[in-house]
Amino acid sequence: MEAKPDTAMSRSQDPEKKALLEVFELKTWFSSSSGMFARQKQHIRAVDGVSFRIRQNETLGLVGESGCGKTTLGRTLLGLETATSGHVIFKDRPLLSLSRKEMDQMRRHLQVVFQDPLSSLNPRMNVINIVTEGLVRFGMLKGSRQEHARRLLAEVGMDEAMIYRFPHEFSGGQRQRINIARAVSLRPDLIICDEAVSALDVSIQAQVINLLLTLQEQHFLSYLFISHDLSVVSNIADRVAVMYLGQIVETGSTAEVIREPLHPYTRMLIAALPVAGKKKVDSSGVKGETPLYTARPEGCRFNPRCRQAMDVCRRTAPDEIRQNSRSVRCHLYS
In b/e form, how buried is each residue of 164-175, taking b as 16+ CB within 10 angstroms? Predict the structure, then answer.
C-alpha cells in the first residue's frame, strides 16, 4: 500500500492556504425508545463531537469501520440529517443556520457522489438530462444541453455519443462516472464522496480515483473522501481522519498515519489490510467487535477492544492531544 506522494501533502498542508470547510464539535444524535411500552428514551450518538477542517484543493480521507458514523457526518454536512449541536463554516458562512432557501443556493458549491451508482441516478432520465439538471436549476446553462452534456462526458472519459442513453444501459463504473460528471457540472468547491468506489471492481476503483485526482487539478476541487478501506483512501487523500464510534481518534498526513499510526484502532485498520505475497499476521493488539451505540463503554470508547487498555482508559475519556499536524485521542500519549 502506497500513500499519496508527499508533494501533494505538503501542498495541502500549506498554512497560508485558506480553510474551505471548518467543523467544530459537531454532534448528530438520534432518539430511540426501549423498555416496556417504549418509555425509555436513548440517544444514538452517531456523530459525537467531531472537529476538522478541509483546505482549498485538499482531500481529507475519513476512514473507519462500517457503523462508525462516517456517512451520518457526510449527510449532516449536506443538510440531509439535522445536527444536534456544533458549528460548520463553509465558504465563511455558518452552514447549520442557513434557511432552506439559502441552503438550496449553497448546494451549487457543495456536491456529493453516493455509494450506489445506480440508485443515485433517476432511471427515467437519460444522461443529457442527468448531467445538465443542475445547470438548468441554477441558471448556468449557456448554449445547448447537448453541448454541455458532451463536454461533461468527455471530462469523465466517456463517449460523447452516450448522452441519450439511460442508466440501466451502463456498467457500474460508467454510472459512477456519470454521477461524477453531474457533481462537477456546477463547478463546486467541495465534493463529498461517500464510499464512491466501494461498489466497484478493484481495477475500476483505480480508474475512478485517477479521474477524481485529474478533475481536482483541473477544477481546483476539494474532497471529503469517506471510505472504510484505508488502502483506497491512501491513494487519494492528502490527510486522513480515523473515526470510531462517532469520534475522530487520529488525524495526520496520509504518509505519517500509515508509516507511524498512533492510535491502536488505526494500527488495527492497517494490520487488517491484505499484503500481496505475505502471510497474514495480526499485530494490531486489538480484539472483539465494535459495540452498539446504545451500549457505548465508559471511558475510552475503544478500551474493550484494546489490549493496551489501562485503568484510566476504563474510567475517563481521553482528550485530544495535538502536536504539529498530528492529533490522537488516546491515554497512551497523555
Answer: eeebeebeebbb
